[in-house]
Amino acid sequence: MSWASVFRLRQYAKSSLWIAPLFGMALGVVLAELAIAADGVDWPPSGWRYSATTASGVLSAIVGAMVALLGFVVTIGVLVIQQATGALSPRYMRLWYRDRLQKTVLATFTGTFAFAFSLLRSIESNSVPDFGVTLAGAAVAVSLLLLLVYLNRFTHNLRPVAIADLVGRMGEGVFARGAMEVGASAPHDGESVTAHGPVTLIRSPHGGAIQAFDVAGLVAAGVGHDCTFVVPHLIGDYVPPGAVLVEVHGGTSAPDPRHVTGLIALGAERTIEQDPAFALRILVDIAIRALSPAVNDPTTAVQVLNHIESFLTVIGSARLRDRYVMTDDRDRPRLVLHGRDWEDYLQLAVSEIRDYGATSTQICRRLRALLDGLLESLLAVQHPAVETQLKLLDQSVERAFPDPDRRAVAQWTDRQGIGGRSRPHRWG
């Protein structure tokens, strides 16, 4: 099985809502057998004994309650999907599926159901699994506690600002891990890194968005064939069937195309594993959805801009390059990956929000405060891209506010949009 196939299986397992409950059900059956065996060694104490009628009634009630609670959680899931696709971003659903608390709740419910149902078959008039019935009651208590935690979490975390905070932190974490992985890549700025010799094109066997690269595997393959792999696409790009996926420069032998394509995971949509820009895409989606005429909630967009600014500050503090060259132990280039530069991230973060929020005083003022803050916190090398966005914002305000007095108000900076400590824009 190729690395890409294993990656896709991991993604499926992370987003699946049935695997954890299945393991919970299997564990419930095993624990029921152990509980029945424990009753054969004169345990529990006499105070924990039950009659056959009582035990049967309790276990039957538990089985019915767990089925009802499972239906309740599924109903909540449907409501979350409606909320996320209607007011947030459909891209967020890929992250919501992975929530560990939700899977724990489902696994606990199915496990308690299987445990109680398995105990029912061992109840006889002269034989009752007393220890198992007690454990079943304890499992119900744990299930109810988890349900309350689940309800509390999703009641609070379904707010756009809470989701923006979650997605922003995930994106920053992915960016930090990616920066560590490519941090040792050779700069090779302005010089050729490809080997002299023939260039072999490896084409994509099927279409899909690039989800992840096996960097170590590609470097090892480059060493084995004494060649340099060049991937002409950014992670997150959609590659149609038959398009060039990898360029092979030089080499003593031709690598197997199936092996090389098996080191690049393609899927139906982007993932966040190696793509911090996908997290930024979700944040922008939430903001522009709030700015749509159907929602008309610029305050939510302002709150999302807070987390976008934090994300941009982290990205702007790192050294970004338009390409990353991975070398072998002898410092020979073996893999060339293209990367996003600071201007790419900045355009993604502010362009659509500026366009959709051009008529909102809140958005104009908060965007200006965001860009001014980046000028204050980042190095001078990052300033030209920020100043370009400030000019575009000025032009947008000029078009949206023909009245001079209203335009002057929209050109002030305010970290709260409206109501904070505002001041004239120093670049205007």
Strand content: 5-15%
Query: Which sheet architecture does the biggest sheet show?
Result: 5 strands, mixed
User: Termini separation (Å)?
Assistant: 59 Å
Helix-and-strand structural type: alpha+beta
Order of helices and strands: HHHHHHHEEHEEEHEHHEEHHHH
Strands of the widest sheet, in order across it, are 1-5-3-8-7
Q: What is the overall pLDDT average?
A: 88
Overall outline: flat
β-strand number: 8
Number of helices: 15
Cα-based radius of gyration, to the nearest Å: 28 Å
Concise description?
This protein has 428 residues and is an alpha+beta fold. It is 59% helix and 9% strand.
Secondary structure elements and pairings:
Layout: H1 3-15, H2 19-38, H3 52-87, H4 93-96, H5 100-120, H6 130-157, H7 160-182, E1 199-203, E2 208-213, H8 215-225, E3 227-231, E4 238-239, E5 244-250, H9 257-261, E6 264-267, H10 276-290, H11 298-316, E7 323-327, E8 333-338, H12 342-356, H13 361-377, H14 383-400, H15 404-410
Parallel strand pairs: 3-8
Antiparallel strand pairs: 1-5, 2-4, 2-6, 3-5, 7-8
Helix pairs in contact: 2-5, 2-6, 3-5, 3-6, 5-6, 7-10, 7-11, 10-11, 10-12, 11-12, 11-13, 12-14, 13-14
Describe the structure.
The protein is built from 15 helices and 8 strands. The protein is α+β, with helices and mostly antiparallel strands and 428 residues long. The strands form 2 sheets. It has a 5-stranded mixed beta sheet with strand order 1-5-3-8-7. Helix 2 (19-38) packs parallel to helix 5. The longest helix is centred in the N-terminal third of the chain and has 36 residues, at 52-87. The mean pLDDT is 88.
